[in-house]
Task: inverse folding
């Protein structure tokens, strides 16, 4: 069995399986192959390949509990929630999913110096400059209204 580390930190295990078919005049080779192929797929899915031990070959022990074996049409791969093919895929929209220490997969949003994100997984970006500008404008309008109101109240009290 060979292990290969993929782009998103996934570990792909590859094996070569040789099927031997006995010639049978009553059954076509294609039918025999499809039957054997489905049996092998079923064995992979239900048998030892669902064990976390299959993933322990090239993954550090501290991160192993974040990886799960996943069988797809491409074979067996050990994936995290950051992998797009994972059943528990963590979609970070415009951000990047990474495994952070003992906390596990997390979304890291881009340009956090320019934007505040109001929702998890890098959704609801608000420009920090626009937010400060809006708050400043609101405070400015409040000060102007307070000054005008104060002047009117002062004049009313002074002239009455």
Result:
């Amino acid at each position: 069995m060979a292990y290969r580390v993929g782009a998103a930190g996934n570990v792909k295990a590859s094996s070569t399986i040789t099927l031997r078919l006995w010639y049978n005049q009553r059954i076509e080779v294609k039918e025999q192959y499809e039957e054997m192929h489905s049996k092998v797929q079923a064995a992979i899915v239900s048998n030892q390949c669902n064990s976390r031990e299959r993933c322990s070959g090239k993954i550090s022990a501290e991160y192993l509990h974040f990886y799960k074996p996943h069988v797809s049409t491409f074979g067996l791969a050990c994936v995290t929630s950051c992998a797009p093919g994972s059943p528990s895929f963590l979609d970070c929209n415009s951000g990047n999913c990474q495994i952070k220490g003992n906390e596990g997969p997390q979304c890291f949003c881009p340009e956090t110096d320019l934007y505040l994100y109001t929702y998890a997984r890098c959704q609801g970006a608000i420009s920090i400059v626009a937010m400060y500008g809006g708050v400043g404008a609101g405070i400015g309008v409040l000060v102007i209204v307070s000054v005008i109101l104060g002047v009117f109240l002062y004049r009313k009290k002074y002239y009455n």
User: Anything to note?
Assistant: DSSP finds two helices and eight strands in the chain. The radius of gyration is 31 Å. Residues 128-159 form the longest helix (32 residues). The chain has a mean pLDDT of 81.
